[in-house]
Design goal:
This protein is α/β, with parallel strands linked by helices. The chain has one domain: Fe-S hydro-lyase, tartrate dehydratase beta-type, catalytic domain (fumarase, Alpha-Beta Barrel), CATH 3.20.130.10. It is 25% helix and 26% strand. Strands 2-3-4-5-7 form a five-stranded mixed β-barrel. α1 links the parallel β1 and β2. It starts with a strand and ends with a helix.
């Protein structure tokens, strides 16, 4: 099976077509955010204030990139563990977030929110951050510069490689992988 090419922002039609295990290449914009930025974003929502970027149809990449080398838009940019964002992810999905990229399993609450709000959870290869960064062609800080590597960035990507982990059909790549290789 080949890769599925998608472009951000994502709509429900794209989300509905993706299945756990699909290999996907993303073009367009990704926003970066980790736990400290997620906390601030949710606090803004709770106070009824405007977010520093529009969540509708967007994908958030859980990454804290290293500084860029001369001539490059970003340094190494491998995924971070996703469970630290689980307390905040459902609220962001409720307000339009359509995709998340990270590594590791998600909580029951996040999995339920993925189905309810028609969102998708992707992973990309950990330990290959320098290679992944080659698919990032632009980077600019859009919020929380005081967080350093964890500031919210707007990334421009071409052929950014991910795999679908959790889809809206209640499929889970991590569980499927265990079943596939479990000994009876």
């Amino acid at each position: 099976m080949g890769e599925i090419h998608i472009t951000t922002p994502l709509g429900d039609d794209v989300i509905s077509s993706l299945r756990s295990g699909d290999r996907v290449l993303i073009d367009g914009t990704l926003f970066t955010a980790r736990d400290a930025a997620h906390k601030r974003l949710v606090e803004l929502i709770d106070r009824g204030e405007q977010l520093p970027f529009d969540l509708k149809g967007q994908i958030v990449y859980y990454v804290g990139p290293t500084p860029a080398r001369p001539g490059r838009p970003i340094g190494s940019a491998g995924p971070t563990t996703s469970f630290r964002m689980d307390a905040y992810a459902p609220k962001l999905m409720e307000h339009g977030l359509k995709g998340m990229i990270g590594k590791g399993a998600r909580s029951k609450e996040v999995l339920e929110a993925i189905r309810r709000f028609k969102c998708i959870y992707f992973t990309t290869v950990g330990g290959a951050g320098a290679l992944i960064a080659r698919r990032i062609i632009g980077s600019e800080i859009v919020a929380y510069e005081d967080l350093g590597a964890e500031a919210v960035r707007k990334l421009t990507v071409e052929n950014f490689p991910v795999f679908v982990v959790n889809d809206i059909h209640a499929n889970d790549l991590y569980e499927e992988g265990v079943r596939k290789y479990a000994r009876t």
